[in-house]
Amino acid sequence: MDYKDITLQIIQVAKKVGVFIKNNQINLLPNDIKTKGLHDFVTYIDKQAEEQIIKQLKLILPEAGFIAEEGTETNKKDKFNWIIDPLDGTTNYIHQLAPFAISIALQENKKTVIGVVYEISKNECFYAWKNSKAYLNDKIIKVSNVEKISGSLISTGFPYNDYSQLNNLLDTLSYFMQKSHGVRRFGSASVDLAYLACGRFDSFFEYGLNPWDVAAGAFIVEQAGGKVSDFSGGDNYIFGREIAAANSKNYKEFIDIINKNFNK
Fold this sequence. Notes:
This protein is α+β, with helices and mostly antiparallel strands. The protein has two domains: about 5-140, Fructose-1,6-Bisphosphatase, subunit A, domain 1 (Fructose-1,6-Bisphosphatase, Chain A, domain 1, 2-Layer Sandwich); about 150-260, D-Maltodextrin-Binding Protein, domain 2, CATH 3.40.190. The protein has seven helices and 14 strands. The protein has a seven-stranded mixed sheet with strand order 3-4-5-6-7-8-9, sandwiched between helices. The chain has a five-stranded mixed sheet with strand order 11-10-12-14-13, sandwiched between helices. Strands 1-2 form a two-stranded antiparallel ribbon. Helix 1 packs antiparallel against helix 2, helix 4 runs antiparallel to helix 7 (about 250-260) and helix 5 packs parallel to helix 6 (about 210-225). The radius of gyration is 17 Å and the shape is globular. The termini are far apart. The model has no long low-confidence stretch (mean pLDDT about 90).
């Protein structure tokens, strides 16, 4: 399989659908916004974007199944599966804010082999494929070389409806706010991971996420030289609803703090 060629085709799909998403942002009306759950929103843009993405991906790899946020396709397959978020950062999008992105990953035998995150507002496409470097708009990217949490800028996300670990989160935020360069919350996990991959952030953690939020971005981080795990340092970060990622130099210090606070 030519992973690079498939990746380049995915990029074209993401950019085409990105134009549709961007052009419709200004026209979004209050009645177009629906609630899926507490603080969890969806628009007709999410649904139509997913339909467009899936239609094109079926042409690229007809034998693949889909794990998609809006449920347009639910036919998961044994060997190949696309993991798709057609609009990661919907809350930002409906408030006319950035960032928001399209996230597309391809898994082969349950291992991610391609990741594409297209941040629409800045026209930045982050991507990687099996055994490749990581890229941003055709330029090779790498995670930062910051060695200590004391010199790190950390990104995170806040839970929409799962507050079961809120106290642990607050303890962790308190530590990082006092011990690092600061904490940022941009509202799009795929973009947080992409920014980590190119060195804008040094570490990232969040719980309560879904596979489509993290599959592509996590793969890009790994291909850029970073490390990704669940909060215990294990590998259940795509379907386990918790993820910690960092450059390879500060990962050990970072995951020790996360593990201590979330696994009390």
